[in-house]
Amino acid sequence: MTDRTHEFRTLCQNQIPVVAQPVKVRKQKPALSALQQQVQFNASASDVSKEVNKVSQRLQQLTLLVRQTNMFNDPTSQINELTQLVKQDITLIHTKLDDLEMFQRSHHADYSSQHAAKHSDAIVTQMKSTLMSTTKGFKDILQVRQDNLQHQHDRKSQYGRATPSVPLAFSAPLPRPVGVEGEGGGSEHVPLISAQSQQQFVVPEQGYADSRAEAVSNIQSHIVELGELFQRLSVMISAQGDSVRMYDRCMHAPMTWHAHRLCIYLLTCRDL
């Protein structure tokens, strides 16, 4: 007799209804409403505005320090510190403005009206224009600082050339005390400043020249970077202005069409 137990078990398993496994639905993050988007945009714009105000105050302080042209009391450390802070602030604001513009463009279709979209574009454009003006002011004051350093270096070089390089001595021999004769039997020249003392004067002067040369080099590098940033901002503001003008045309087109239809209607009524 043939053992068909295996076939029986297979048949029973096929008769068992297959229960479908529940599909796990990934919860999607709810999209921001138009009001939430506007609130988030306004908060980001307010943050950027505060940063612009802070960098403007620092720039005013830097301007006051740079315009102090005293060669012997030059606030170099304060100027260098403020210069670095202003440069970092401008770079940070530029990054935040890029993020704000990307957020505004990504939610452009979700605005409740074209007027709201145009308003957001105008805010971004105004902030970019303010940043560009601040960048230009920073670049101008760095140029003034560079000119001042060059002027100080020229004056220092002029005074340095007027200083004799040989030990200072009396043109006439100094009289020796009575009964004391020099090695050659006569009086000798006595230098007013020893060679060692003069060497001590030369070393700080060389360090001063090196520090000024380094400061000028750093300022030139900052000016080049700010020029590139200024150029990028100009391009971005031009593109933003094109977007605003496009919204104006889109808003005025329906109004023009309705005005045209109204004129036709009024002319028809007058003919009647």
Task: Walk me through what this model shows.
The protein is mainly alpha-helical and 272 residues long. Helices cover 74% and strands 0% of the residues. The protein has a domain at 36-152 and 207-272: Methane Monooxygenase Hydroxylase, Chain G, domain 1 (Up-down Bundle), CATH 1.20.58. The chain has helices at 5-15, 34-66, 76-106, 114-162, 195-271. Helix 2 (34-66) packs antiparallel against helix 3 (76-106), helix 2 packs parallel to helix 4 (114-162) and helix 3 packs antiparallel against helix 4. It starts with a helix and ends with a helix. The relative contact order is 0.09.
The CATH level-2 architecture of the domain at 36-152 and 207-272 is identified as Up-down Bundle
Distance between the termini: 108 Å
**For the report, how would you describe the main beta sheet?**
none
CATH class annotation of the domain at 36-152 and 207-272: Mainly Alpha
Question: Which percent range fits the helix content?
Answer: over 70%
| Low-pLDDT regions | 162-172
| Count of alpha/pi helices | 5
Which series of helices and strands comes N to C?
Answer: HHHHH
CATH topology of the domain at 36-152 and 207-272: Methane Monooxygenase Hydroxylase, Chain G, domain 1
Radius of gyration, CA atoms, in whole angstroms: 40 Å
SS class = mainly alpha
Total strand count, please? 0
In what range is the share of β-strand residues? under 5%
Mean pLDDT figure: 68
Organism: Aphanomyces astaci (Crayfish plague agent)
Domain T-SNARE coiled-coil homology: 206-248
Protein name: t-SNARE coiled-coil homology domain-containing protein
InterPro entries: SNARE (IPR010989), T_SNARE_dom (IPR000727)
